[in-house]
Design brief:
With about 80 residues, this protein is an all-alpha fold. It contains three helices and no strands. The longest helix is centred in the first third of the chain and has 27 residues. The N and C termini lie far apart (about 45 Å).
């Protein structure tokens, strides 16, 4: 696969991804609209099974740590 190097190739690449995004959104909406209750519950169970892997997530936004870093950098 050749990388887009010219402005026209880059525009074409972006056009393709925009079209793909529109198509994928339509597919997602159709799949959700036609999902059975059983498929919905399976999807929910699948997502909930991931929860133990993310239990170490912070309960804060990180703003306090960010401000501490800014304060530290500002002193230098």
């Amino acid at each position: 696969m050749k990388l887009a190097t010219t402005p026209e190739e880059m525009r074409q690449w972006m056009r393709q991804w925009r079209e793909a995004a529109i198509y994928l959104d339509e597919v997602k909406r159709d799949e959700l609209a036609n999902m059975t209750e059983e498929e919905g519950w399976r999807a929910i169970e699948s997502l909930l099974s991931l929860a133990p892997h993310y239990r170490r997530l912070s309960r804060t936004s990180g703003l306090v740590k960010q401000q501490a870093w800014f304060h530290k950098w500002n002193r230098k």
